[in-house]
Amino acid sequence: MYRITVLFGHPQDPAAFERYYRQTHFPLAAKMKGVKGVTIGKLEALDPGQPAPYYRITSFYFDSREAYEAVLASPEGQAAHADLNNFATGGVSIVGNEEEVLVPVSLPPTPQDWKHHLAQDHFGVAARAYTTSKVHASGPDLAWIVEAAALTGKEHVVDVGTGTGHTALALAPYATEVVALDITLPMLEEGRHLAASRGVTNVRFLQGDACALPLNSSQFDLVACRYAAHHFTHVPRAIGEWARILKPGGKVVVADSVSPEEPEIDRFLNEIEVLRDPSHGRNYRLSEWFSLLTEAGFTASLVRSWTIPLDLASWTQRIQTPPASVAQIERLFADASSLTREHLHIGLNEEGLLSFALPGAVIVGVKPV
From CA 233, how far away is CA 209, in angstroms rounded? Predict the structure, then answer.
């Protein structure tokens, strides 16, 4: 095992450093392939009278020095290395060493889990904005989900990726119990406050990973998942979890943004999504959703499709996208092909704001009896 240690000097503006480090640099580093483990931390001096010689430390683990050099030479490695000059105002030192393990240690989450942590960082600070977001709080798909669920009042429901609980609260009047699950604690706290303000008592807010649900098998009648699956680190695994916890004959209702089938527009849409929010995984095409659900044993059907009008300003402000990334999205909009502009309705809305329309779909899957 080979370790690269990055030591950051004390920055001129610690708050600006932290913002850039987490929202811009960390997502760049997360694109590097071949990293086996990562640790990060702030340094503190053991002598109370002395400041720590460095501000932050980041350690990357590789199979070998050769593996590290290959990653550094890759476009992703070069981009992450060059980006240090954009925010490390206190200077940076990089050293490497062969690890000699005397006592076994457990390494932190591997790169495929980085988006999991990015999601917590991004959505934790943005939780309040999602409580009041018109798209999330009052979109027409909320009623379509309730309609597709067709609850009778006896069902046990799980809302996976609940965010601040809008979907769970919409389903609650028609269910015995709703478990509102999310990985981000500030989102769940917002959801609890929202439920209390509405007098809803049959929703239980629970922290958990969508790809490893902390729930018993064959216990639920309905799984709902709204505007969340495109953030999951492993959608097939999440769908497998839905199949596991549902009773025979149980139903899953997914409402999410989707990509058009055209490869060019698919690439464009997912590129701007990642620029806006590095925790974004992928907007799947409808054909991909049908394949994934079928492979998990569900009988899938499309219930609704529509477009979600969004203006770039509020869309990026809600998740606190860095200005440099917003500018890059604006450039992509300006350079978009006529096909992409037509399909995504890129242009100025009635208020004169740069806007586009995000395709959405409500999909139902039924588990065999």
Answer: 10
